[in-house]
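explain this.
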Amino acid sequence: MPRIRLTVAALLLGGLAFSAAAQADTACPDGARCAHLTVPLDRSDLSQGTIDVAYALLPRTDTSRPALGTIVPNPGGPGQSTIASAGLYTGALTPLRKRRDLLLIDPRGTGQSGALPCPSLAARDPLSLDYAGVQAVCAADTGPRARFYGSAAVADDIDAVRASLGVDKLDLWGDSYGTYLMPVYAARHPQHVRSIVLDGAYPIAFDPWGRDVLRGTRRVIGLVCERTRRCSGPRVLEQIEQLARRLRRHPVHFSAESPIGRVPLSIGERELANVVYGGGHPEVYGLLPAAVAAALDHDYAPLQRMVAVDRIGQAGSLLLDPSVVSFGGQTATTCHDYPRPFSLAATPAERRAAYDTALAALDPAQFAPFSPDAWLSTGIEGGPKCLDAIADPTAGSPVQGLAMPDVPVLVQSGDLDTNTPIEQGRLAAAQFAHPIRGIVANAGHTPDLQPCGVAMAIDFIEHLTTDPDRCRHAGRPPVVAGRPARRAAELASGPVRRAVAVAVATLADARTAATYSGMTGSLDALRGGTYVVSEKRVRFAGARVVSDARADGTFAVGTGIARLRLRGPGVPHAVLTLTATRATGTVAGRRVAVRLP
């Protein structure tokens, strides 16, 4: 839902560089025929003007035979450019593209279709804004024009492009928000739908309080523990609840390395809830059990890393060029279409009163292990989002009064997805008469990013049926990490083994920091110092994975060779060279050669 499928690391220029926002690649995709179609901004009131909708048509690779169909994907958001996301589909859908055309359409308000900017974000500290705050800023920027950017209008634009190209029927492929948009198209233009793939699906009428997402989050924690046998789901949830109560009363303040230097951050109950939500990334649940257990023991270092990655990543996403991801477009769509616990036609003051009354009537236990306020402040779509949007009497469900067509539908869910969990996928499938519901094991958001998930969807489009159980045993759960040592002596006994263990743990922590954050640049080591990560090497600058030892040196990515100098009260002075199998060098002036497991 609000989570963007493209990673911040892939979009920000210079890795972590906040000094310049990412720029969209506005070039027409290789081999595509690109154009714009002018459509009314408001089809019920032509005096409102027009908007140009951009599209890119990639013809089938075998033009010697007639096309078998036309695939129209949407990558999600809302607010994400489909044309800029061409790479998500051109490679993955290669088996289909031999006989099928691929039609990429930027929804109005995104990409090359008049991307809605949100200029006031530039004047705000991005670390001070949560998702609801971003919506409030962008709603004020967009103003009353936001009503022109609902999913019904986008669906009608898609159909206008279809008609202009003389295409009869479409194979619809929706990811994330696309699983909301494509049913809207199907309900409004049923005669032009051949098939629908909904990947990472949620229904038109989802729970405006996010309780379905929370149920999915609790289930995913239990699944990861059960599959890895490295933790107990009930125990982890119990510890999260204990920690949430503590942080509600006593937040923890710290600082973290960012592209603009060190920035102050906090861990309160809200930050904990956002980390636990995870946004559909299964790797979170490999790190969470140990981070929560350590925090209960007043060792906050692992949790600080998770909060820092979450907050800095969110802040970085706000600097994306609006032609890549438009937060103005996202706000306009979600504050027009999505179910809310208040009327979007009401004034902001009336909405707040209705929201407070409705929230007070709910059982707080439904939001365990958090307080309602903490859970509803996360990046989920439910709760107090859109409270400050301009009153819109045209807002509401884009399929009101319409029926879904009985067409072939595949609804896919990753069983470790906490963004649009299988609890929502079940309801998305129930919108249709004869859906095929595929569960992709160990996949997050969205499962067509996994080999088995995309193979299932391709098979479905080719045959209009598929085995829904083909991915029930796909993939692997995330590795569940153990609690990190606080001192060198906890890693190994004896000076040589201890020095080698610290060196190995430092390399492992650098890999965890870079992989989990998805970023390059300066990253905090677990207990102090930094890793400076680039494509070719990692530089260690006073990096501490334990409190009583520090490491300086380099790791060459191409060769896999690390050279580290260790010092500190917990280890003898050591100069070590490490490969995948051996550690050689000196420890306390003596030459050593240790075989690594």
